[in-house]
DNA sequence: ATATATATAATCAAAAACAAACAAAAGAAA
DNA sequence: TTTCTTTTGTTTGTTTTTGATTATATATAT
């Protein structure tokens, strides 16, 4: 990527999200944080954004043009680390599924531009990946869920029918040892259930806060999950219980 | 290859790909990098591209900044007037189709927030409508076409199968009296053909510049179109010919 | 408030990209 | 043809970019 392109990308990201951290830009652009800081200095000089400790903020009014960019995502740091860990599992020429979760969106943003087919029901994921030439993006159809900007409903499920992928990366609202994996929104739950069905391996992306919880709709049993990726704030007790249930768990540690 | 030819080639490549490296151009053109640098300097002088360390970036689509929507779209004013005219045809509880065109995008942005079901294959249209509570948005699935941010391919066509709508609003690249309606991109053309098939009435949104043109792929005959909405710059001769063919034409005048 | 972690600025070295100068080659004009 | 101009490739030295390192400043937690 050319310098000018990187600068445009930085400005775009800053304006989209309202603010962004140096570390995040470093990952997305695949350059060191030092380079990002120099970029930010120059972009501030040019009046295209405002610098602040740890990152940069948009120069436009803070009201993001779409309400969906809800800043202050809970457990953001953990989700990012989980996304980093998950991306490591992806290889060239994989066919994968990403669901409509914040963690999947992070994955999409830091995904390297390698030959890959990604199936998703998330507009955000699709848009994030549209900039990566080598990545083929396939979207489900369906009814648009305005808040999450994702496609759900019977036609979303049906549109997954013809596909078969190697790896599915899904998130959830709750993981309960006995009751299984749950989601607060039934429509999303049904789509996830279908995604599991057409994937060889399912990876569950869940930060520590999800364990022990039960949400409205159950969409999978624990044994249907091949691997859980979580963060190091997970309760050791939960970790132990999962071990006893023979569930593979990867803990994403700090860099 | 002549110098002028090489220059045209460079500009074309830069605009096609958004950016390109000096080394890449050197290989493609079979000249040394020094020559390419000299070329780029001159092309930048002439305002045909922008130089960046290591290569050059396109001068086009390079301000998707604040006026996310108001880019240098050709015949923007005409398209807006056509969109305004088309929106007048929409009533509460209609089920309509919007395609992945700029005009459809304008329509989406000025569509009143009334009970409505909109089927589209355009991410931009879907996002624009996501803010309108009373509008239900249904998207086709399919392969993401990165440049137009729309869904195409067999699965996009298939995902239209189960639907039936009252009105379809489509655009095109060319309208020819005898040869019919054409589009430059075959995949988009096939989707449009399907859209026409599932709509009771098809409205063709076409600014004056489209008449008499033929693009790569034909996707409809004139008689399949129920009404053409165009602007007042249309050639009276074309208007007369359409009249003789008994095609209903609405001319969007200035506000 | 103090300690600890994190972010930054300053400096350096290596690699890549560049600019300038010059000579050879190709075209245009006499 | 000869002469003149333009273009191109080569060489050389310079600048820019980047990542690494170190020391300093700033935030966060206890």
What does this structure look like?
The structure is a homodimer of 255-residue chains. Chain A starts with a helix and ends with a strand. In chain A, the strands form 4 sheets. Chain A has a 7-stranded parallel sheet, with helices on both faces. In chain A, strands 1-3-2 form a 3-stranded antiparallel sheet. A 3-stranded antiparallel sheet of chain A has the order 10-11-13, covered by helices on one side. Chain A has 2 domains: 3-57, Arc Repressor Mutant, subunit A (Orthogonal Bundle); 76-252, Rossmann fold. In chain A, 36% of the residues lie in helices and 25% in strands. Chain A has 9 helices and 15 strands. Chain A is α/β, with parallel strands linked by helices and 255 residues long. The radius of gyration of chain A is 19 Å and the shape is globular. In chain A, β4 (95-98), α5 and β5 (116-120) form a beta-alpha-beta unit. β7 (142-145) of chain A pairs antiparallel with β6 (135-139) of chain B. The structure holds a DNA duplex (30 and 30 nucleotides).
């Amino acid at each position: 990527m050319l310098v000018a392109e990187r600068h445009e990308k930085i400005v775009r990201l800053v304006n989209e999200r309202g603010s962004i951290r140096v570390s995040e830009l470093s990952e997305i652009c695949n350059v060191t944080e030092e380079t990002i800081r120099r970029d930010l200095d120059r972009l501030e000089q040019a009046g295209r954004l405002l610098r602040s400790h740890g990152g940069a903020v948009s120069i436009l009014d803070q009201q993001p043009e779409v309400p969906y960019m809800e800043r202050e995502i809970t457990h953001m740091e953990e989700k990012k680390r989980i996304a980093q860990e998950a991306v490591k599992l992806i290889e060239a020429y994989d066919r994968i599924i990403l669901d409509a979760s914040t963690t999947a969106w992070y994955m999409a943003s830091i995904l390297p531009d390698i030959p890959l087919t990604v199936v998703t029901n998330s507009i955000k994921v699709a848009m994030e990946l549209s900039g990566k030439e080598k990545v083929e993006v396939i979207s489900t159809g369906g009814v648009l869920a305005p808040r999450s900007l994702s496609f759900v409903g019977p036609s979303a499920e049906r549109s997954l029918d013809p596909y078969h992928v190697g790896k599915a990366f899904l998130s959830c609202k709750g993981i309960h040892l006995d009751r299984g994996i749950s989601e607060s929104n039934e429509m999303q739950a049904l789509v996830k259930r279908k995604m599991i069905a057409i994937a060889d391996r399912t990876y569950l992306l869940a930060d520590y806060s999800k364990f022990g919880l039960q949400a409205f709709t159950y969409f999978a049993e624990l044994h249907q999950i091949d691997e859980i990726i979580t963060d190091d704030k997970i309760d050791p007790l939960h970790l132990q219980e999962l071990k006893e249930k023979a569930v593979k768990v990867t803990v994403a540690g700090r860099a």
